């Protein structure tokens, strides 16, 4: 039973960590190499695409999606999609996809004369399922060694930690005041019943031995 309990605990925290890693904003220092739009037909990976841009026809299965091609400071290539999140999830309330694409296009540069930028995004990149992280913001920086402090993540994780701590403290208090006394009473009742049964069995054994000796 203890192993089952720990399996459920690990699954819960693993799922929560995966959800937060996908949803919370991440910051990449990149050099933009190209920007373009492409017709996309979401299929099995439709969960990892945002809804159509606000104000467009959402009943159409396929749609045009903006993409931003980049190269990181270490030389790795990363491609981002650029879609509105609107009023949906994750709650970035992003409505400025076209403006962001224009800003990204303006920051394009070459390896000979690099212009570095901090690109804020959420989501993952998976080549096998054609999953792309969604860009939600971009700004130019002086170089690839700039320090970025993820204040939003720090605040959200601190609030979540405080929330779970409050729940845990209240659960321990509730268990100590409500559940533990009931369990102790039940345990005392079982022990008393066991002692009574043992005493009656001893009396019956003595009575039976007395009958045999007569």
TrEMBL record:
InterPro entries xref list: Phage_phiNM3_A0EWY4
Keywords noted in UniProt: Membrane, Transmembrane, Transmembrane helix
Superkingdom assignment: Bacteria
Segments crossing the lipid bilayer: 148-169
Keyword Transmembrane attached: yes
Keyword Transmembrane helix: yes
Protein name (record): DUF1523 domain-containing protein
Species, as recorded: Puniceibacterium sediminis
């Amino acid at each position: 039973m203890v192993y089952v309990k720990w399996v459920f605990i690990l699954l819960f925290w693993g799922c929560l960590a995966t959800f937060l890693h996908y949803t919370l904003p991440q910051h990449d220092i990149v050099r933009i190499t190209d920007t373009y739009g492409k017709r996309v037909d979401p299929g099995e990976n439709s969960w990892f695409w945002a809804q159509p841009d606000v104000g467009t026809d959402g009943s159409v299965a396929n749609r045009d999606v903006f993409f931003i091609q980049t190269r990181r400071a270490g030389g790795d290539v990363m491609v981002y999609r650029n879609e509105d999140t609107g009023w949906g999830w994750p709650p970035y309330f992003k409505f400025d996809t076209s403006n962001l694409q224009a800003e990204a296009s303006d920051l394009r540069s070459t390896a000979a004369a690099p212009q570095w930028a901090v690109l804020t995004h959420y989501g993952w990149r998976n080549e096998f399922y054609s999953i792309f992280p969604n860009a939600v913001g971009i700004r130019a920086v002086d170089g690839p060694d700039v320090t970025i402090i993820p204040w939003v993540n720090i605040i959200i994780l601190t609030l979540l930690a405080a929330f779970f701590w409050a729940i845990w403290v209240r659960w321990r208090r509730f268990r100590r005041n409500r559940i533990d006394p009931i369990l102790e009473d039940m345990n005392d009742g079982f022990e008393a019943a066991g002692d009574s049964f043992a005493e009656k069995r001893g009396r019956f054994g003595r009575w039976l031995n007395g009958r045999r000796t007569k």
